[in-house]
Design brief:
Outer membrane lipoprotein wza fold like; 10 strands; wza like fold; single chain; alpha+beta; five-stranded mixed beta sheet; 5 helices; elongated; three-stranded antiparallel beta sheet
């Protein structure tokens, strides 16, 4: 009897031990650590795709990719100097002077024979030999001296002084100057050569701050405002 009881107890203990020794199946976790972070702080930024290249991997490929993705710098040219910024004014030029906010001063002014323009309030202002920027600065200084607190002045050329063509052309005389003219185009404006004209060179008279000079020049020579062209007669 005692042996039977011991065997029963052994069987019960064995069954209990077998139940405790069963392998516990893993518990499925609904959210990983990264998913929880996403719930708390929002989804992580999308990773940038790496473009596949045929140049192999490594540091060199990475550098190539970074340079390819970087925006290319844009080059900007320097300011372009206008023709007026280097042109020296003289008698006969017509100027548009704008004094911002002052309609009584804004007007077209012609440089007279003395080389000046005459404006309200400030009177005669020397213009001969100046650039448009230099003249604007002079006008600004005079207006600031007891007339306008902070004047803003701009000067531009409305019409250049004329050029003159004499001698053996169909219609000698005075003509309006057009930028980028040559001696040949000036002769065309004057109706062309006369039958007795010398057609290879002309005499060009030019006057500037250094004085007056005369040159024998070919027909392709550039012409300046105020120049005088003399077309000579040929000898045969």
């Amino acid at each position: 009897m005692r042996a039977f009881s011991l065997s029963v107890i052994a069987i019960v203990i064995a069954s209990l031990l077998s139940g405790c020794m069963q392998t516990v199946s893993p518990v499925a976790v609904g959210q990983s650590a990264s998913d929880l972070d996403a719930m708390a702080y929002g989804p992580p930024p999308a990773s940038r795709p790496v473009a596949a290249t045929g140049q192999g991997g490594g540091a060199i490929a990475a550098l190539r990719e970074s340079f390819a993705a970087a925006p290319m710098p844009v080059a900007y040219g320097g300011p372009v100097r206008s023709r007026d910024s280097v042109y020296h004014l003289d008698a006969g030029d017509k100027l548009r002077v704008v004094v911002y906010g002052q309609e009584g001063l804004t007007n077209t002014y012609a440089i007279d024979a003395s080389g000046s323009i005459t404006m309200p309030l400030i009177g005669a202002v020397p213009a001969r030999g100046r650039t448009t920027a230099g003249l604007a600065s002079e006008i600004t200084g005079r207006l600031r001296n007891g007339y306008i607190r902070e004047p803003s002045v701009a000067v531009e050329i409305e019409a250049y002084r004329p050029f003159f063509i004499l001698g053996e052309v169909q219609a000698p005389g005075q003509y309006p100057y057009v930028p980028n003219m040559t001696v040949e185009s000036a002769i065309a404006i004057a109706g062309g050569f006369s039958p007795r004209a010398r057609r290879d060179t002309v005499t060009l008279t030019h006057t500037d701050a250094s004085g007056t000079a005369r040159y024998e020049v070919p027909l392709g020579t550039s012409l300046k405002p105020g120049d005088t062209i003399q077309v000579s007669e040929r000898w045969f």
